[in-house]
Write a structure and sequence with these properties.
The complex is a heterodimer of chains A (about 325) and B (about 350). Helices cover about 80% and strands about 0% of the residues of chain A. With about 325 residues, chain A is mostly helical. The longest helix of chain A has about 35 residues. Chain B contains 14 helices and no strands. The two termini of chain B are about 30 Å apart. Classes of the chains: A mainly alpha (about 325), B mainly alpha (about 350).
Chain lengths: ~325, ~350
Amino acid sequence: MSTGKDLLALFHAGLLPRDGFEGVMENLGLHRRWSHWGNLLLLCLGVGLLLAGIVFFIAYNWLTMPKALKLGGLQVLTVVCAIAAWQRGLHVLSGRAFLFAACVLVGVFLAAFGQVYQTGADAYELFRGWALLTLIWVIASRAPAHWMLWLVVTNLWIYLYWEQVVAYRWETHYSVWLLMALVQLLGLAGFELGKKRDYFWVAQTWPRWVLVPVLLFQLAAPATLIIADDKYDRPYAWLVMLSLVAAIVGGYRYYRHVGRDLFALTCVGATIAWVVFAYAFKLLIDISRSDSCFAFLTLGILAVVLLGGLVRWVRRLSAAMQTEAGS
Amino acid sequence: MTNLDDVLADFGLTGQEDRVRAALRKDTAPWFLQPFIFLGAMVAALMFSAAFLVMLDSMFDVNRFSTVQLSCMGAVYLVAAVFLNRLQLNIYTGALALALSLGGHGFVMGAVGEATKSSAWFMTTFLVLLVLDAGLYFLYRDGLHRFLTTVLVLVLAKLAFAKEHLDFALHGLVLVTTLVGAGVLTRDRELPGWRPLAYGCCTGLVVVLFPVGHRHDSWFDFTRHAMAYPWISSVLVGIALLWTLHWASRKPIPPTAKTVAVLVTGGLAALSTPGLAAALFLTVLGHAAYHARITLLGLVSLPVFLWKYYYYLDLSFLHKSGVLAGSGVLLLGTRWILGYLEKKEAR
């Protein structure tokens, strides 16, 4: 723990006078950097307002713009961003930012193309094209942000395909949940492998903190629906339950011993607590009907017990992992 | 390198190890556990409430709860919440106490609804909760609870004053929240017990100036015409911003930056955008007083108020694009000029 943070804690507790505290912080080099932050604020606001002005100008002239300018302009912008990324190099942040912009502009171009030439194509085809066209750039980027964008686009492709082509109801056909969970799992596995093999330019943990809860949600949500509706005889219902168990067990083993990530483990624990609570809710309400005081009281106590168990488990894990890290 | 023990010796804290230890104690529960804890506590409180209501219904065959019944239930919940909070057992009973308190507030608001006409609900609820939460501030010693109840009271105040067309009361609310926020956070020695009130007032300042009810079918449509003479709040917050900059310049800020700040503040007041001035005020206050959450509040509300200002400009897309791009160029130009003058002053 840094001295600066400790001093701030003491100051906020009212133990240090302001002038003395600021003097010590200045000695530590932790004084307020007005110029730096003011500079950054003016830059972000200035660029944001300028870009907004450009967008409004394009929006105003969109209908009267010739098709060649609409589509050609976007293509030129995409190519310029891609060339700028190549020139800057992908090992620097600005290069990766240009490539990210190029990936986004591919999607914008496809949307504009679909708007200009209205062929009646389904929306999923836009996302399919977007995902396939940007795949090579995403692989070359070696950046988590680009992969996350690609995963979002791919998820939308799958979801819209199911909605528009297969046309099953989202909440009752479990295969689409399984398919999307599989995509998330592949993305997560790819991210962990890439991190291990130093594939990424900069090692970052945040994609795991997005993918783990999303994956667990995509398995816990249909499991909850199955429990609530007693639809164990539906196609893929048991596959959903088994996949959830596998995700919980696999997630615990990996993030306890290999990844050593307390947030991921907390998500696993919270998923277990949620599923147990959902099952108990269904059981008690079915047995005693919804006007039973006993059912709600038991469920309230169960919620407290599960919650307390989760907190205690996470605290123990945290202490154990810190001890292991120290040794 | 400054050693913490040397610092503590310099400030005469060597005999106060207990207080220092309490201030430096880290919660073993990581921060991301808090939302799970709170969610679980809310679920538990919901289940207990359902059990309570089912039991009452089976005993009294209640179709509709009266004011007295709702008030009693609210009182039970609030007393239970205070009791659990005072016990200070562990983190989850603390969360359960908070959930029960929120439930108790809900019952009190329902009781007021039963007792009053719908048109007077906002004002009556505001006055009742003002008294209730003023008392709870001292009884229920938890920072998050104090913060949430302060924000709740200010939200109700905004809605009540807007409903009754008390425009100047809204300006008064802006003045009070600004004074409390700046007054508490710029003290020479921090007052931990009053910090949640200051944070609540800073958040309340954003809430009071927040754009609500600009659609004709909105439930909060009556707030559309609230805040007449917005320049009054712009001036008040502008003065607060200037004062904060003056206070912050106990440590050196380049004179050119101060001049720019005065001009920007004057410009904002002239444009009658109290929200923008408030966002800047909170950003500067938080940064100067070492309260990162207030800085974050200011930075997050800045694009919201910017959007509001430009969205409601009565101009065509073409003219708006010019105003936006021109504003962007102005800010970038200001940045360039400041950088140039700073380098000149440094030489």
